[in-house]
User: Fold Cysteine desulfurase NifS from Alteribacter lacisalsi.
Amino acid sequence: MKRIYLDHAATSPVAPEVVEAMRPYYEDVFGNPSSIHHFGREARRGLDASRETIAHAINARFDEIVFTSGGTEADNLAVIGYATANQDLGRHLITTSVEHHGILHAFRHLETLGFDVTYLPVDEQGRITAVQVEEALREDTTVVSVMYGNNEAGTVQPIEEIGELLKDHQAVFHSDAVQAFGLADIDVKKLGVQLLSVSAHKINGPKGIGFLYIQNGLTVSPGLFGGEQERKRRAGTENVAAAAGMKRAVELALDKREERFAQYERYCNIMIDIFTRKELDFQVNGSREHSLPHILNVSFPGANVESMLTNLDIAGIAASSGSACTAGSIEPSHVLSAMFTDDPERSRSAVRFSFGEGLSEEDVKTAAERTAAIVARLVK
Assistant:
């Protein structure tokens, strides 16, 4: 039985080209990039090349890219780092109710420090509006953080509109672009964001590396203390091998972006068409108009999601749930719960299928057929 991986939104396989790009930094170019001797300078050249490629990918400057351990650290550095460094300007912050926990838990932490946070509600598609942000703004607002595309429902937010709204306000605009990067055309100047988070392992790069774009002129308190790496914004010897891997992953993602976008849209349509043809009772969660193409979140009314995921795994299908299993109990997804406040069952029966490199149309068809058979068996 062929196993089919449909959980690329959780993590993606490392591309062979990425592994090869990293190899020299494990075998030969192993120096500390802060060292002034030949070995250190060689490592520094590799790190600088990675930073340059990544900056170019989002229309930023070389010195506006800070390497981190991934998206969560980038989110924390952006939100906590800016809010605490600039609290003399105000202590009011704005975000949405459907952010990744790397953002939500950072804001919860800031609340314990006396900050006032407004959590914007979303509609049934998981979207907010620029008007909501405008109505929530206060003179003492210093940070607005809205994710580009949701990791569970795939919904894309009106980032450019919000950026335009904020251009004459003191608040800086941060966006978690971890799921969107590599599929969306991200230009930080066009979007009007001053802070942007990205992680490599979502785009067939290595785990343990990401970056935060920090617009020049912003003051951000570091989350780590020690050396003067990353212009004193992120202490610790840089992971040069992973940065080189991320560089190659970014290049591959940009080269194939339009092709992958169309491909993943086809995959979504294939699954929906098969579910429809099999006469399943199902509901697609999120916005089909404003959505990342690689995420398909579907509720199957009457299905027990734990049984669904177990049966999918037995059938060779790797997918995930909008719920987290803790000590044998199901905790509904905070994203879907925010979207469907009057329909808790919808969030409890949701499965997320997410597409990525290495999948074929035949794989997707097979997965959809196996899923349909499982649903028909479980929902009677």
